Amino acid sequence: MSPKALNSSASVADLRVSLGDLKLKNPIMTASGTFGYGQEFVPYMNIHRLGAVVVKGISLFPRSGNPPPRIVETPCGMLNAIGLENVGVERFISEKIPALQAINVPVVVNILGDTVQEYSEITKRLADVEGIAAIEVNISCPNVKKGGVAFGSVPKMAEAVTKAVKENISVPVFVKLSPNVTDITEIGRAVEDGGADAVSLINTLIGMAIDHRTRRPVLANVFGGLSGPAIKPVAIRMVNLVAQAVSIPVIGIGGIETTEDVIEFLLAGATAVQLGTANFVNPRASEEAVEGLTQYVIDEKLLSVRELIGGLVLS
Amino acid sequence: MSQIQEKTEIVRIERLTDDVIRITIDAPEIAMSALPGQFVMIRMGNSSDPLLRRPFSISQTSNAGHIQILFKVVGRGTRYLAHCREGEYISVLGPLGQGFKIDMEKTSCLIGGGMGIAPLLFLGKRIRQKGLKVDPIVILGARTRAELLPLLTDFEQLDLKVHAATDDGSLGHHGLVTDVFKTIDPGPDCMTYVCGPKMMMAAVHLYCKKMEYSCQVSVETAMACGMGACLGCIVPAASGGYVHACSDGPVFDAEEIVWEI
Questions:
Q1: Catalytic annotation on A141?
Q2: B213 and B136 in one domain?
Q3: For A85, nearest residue in chain B (alpha carbons)
Q4: I want to staple A140 with a disulfide (CB 3.0 to 4.6 A). Which of A102, A109, A178, B224 is the partner?
Q5: CATH number among 3.40.50.2300, 3.20.20.70, 3.30.530.20, 3.40.50.300, domain A3-64+82-204+228-308
């Protein structure tokens, strides 16, 4: 086949997937907290080619985040304790949403709060805002003292938060799960019961780094969330477990860098994926994954990318 | 916006001392748009370990489309770069951040310590090109003569007189750059451009405050992305909260930030 023929067939490769009522042109998304508010990546790539963009987690009021140092590199990964620094929902609506709309890509808004009440309020504030394709509820940030993580580890609370968001908005609601729990399938089922349209997993694994010279923790927050290729095997297993435990779509996250990684997560049972830390290393990583997956669907003569979902061959 | 990700060839590697290395990279697009004080993020090969890019100030650009960086081998990233060979390709992202704001009205005073001297060379060159009326004052410090001499020579090639200071007294003043600075009278209208160890920058800033000189500093922090996405590279802000070294800086008016020492 000539390169030209390849290109023309590339445009007809079927990469579409559905997350509840949200139809995506391909399953490649960016993970919250790794892609800013989208604008930061405009110089490097064609953002409109992505399935969707998930923005940095938004709270009711602006947060300045944790003191430095906030990040440290670890083998094949990094620990972060950003502490949910964000501009707050009002500035997000007035400044960030219009800029994102200009890019013409579905925008998933990641939200967080300290109480169920806060989750309801922020959802109500976003309910009438144009240009939001879906909500992703962060019940799993490991880097703040209260709220977040408790919702992610107690099934009843996870369900309650999901309900509070679901009741107040009409767009699909995804819930982002923490891996720092005894049984992630239990939380997955709880948020499904709460009405979630999809679950995204995993958030970072809690870790710690010590500087042997100073005998102190490297991060000011002491603990941080581990991300990057180091966590990929853990993430694939959890995606596989949750995909079998729930009947809503799973969005796979955790150390995805390449097209091969994307395919592996789809085979494990993910309907879509998010690239996170990879964006820091290669700002074009997500666009390259779209290109790679397109080529793979063509080369393997798949009718659609959906053939891969849960296609893991056992024994 | 002019930032890009370039696949670039290493055209020259110079070992200035046992652990100080200067690398010249063929990066025409970055060289064309870079400003003094801006930096690049360099990927350490294609492996996942080390995973993150490393930030480097641009120490020079050339009309031939080259950029130069200067570094000391201190960890895994710099060790990787130190072992690269001429002709190898590396991925460079840049130019990033806010550089120095050159004040044409004031007497320029460039104060650099150790590897912090790197961006000041680019700045000195640009100030020379702009043709300020008064020659910039340059004060450079390092641990030893061996470390300082090759860096000092670059400034002398720009026909700039350099005041030197070394920790061991093997070249110039035996002691700190701030000692030297205090013996010089730049006149009341002085813009100080500083890059070096945090303690040094804080000391220079303190003296500038006392003398009512303006002071710009180029800070260094841990950094994952270099483009404002990870929010990892914060510096406490004088107005409360934080500023980001990669996107608000790395060059700040020293009054904007708080020194945590």
A1: yes
A2: yes
A3: B231
A4: A178
A5: 3.20.20.70
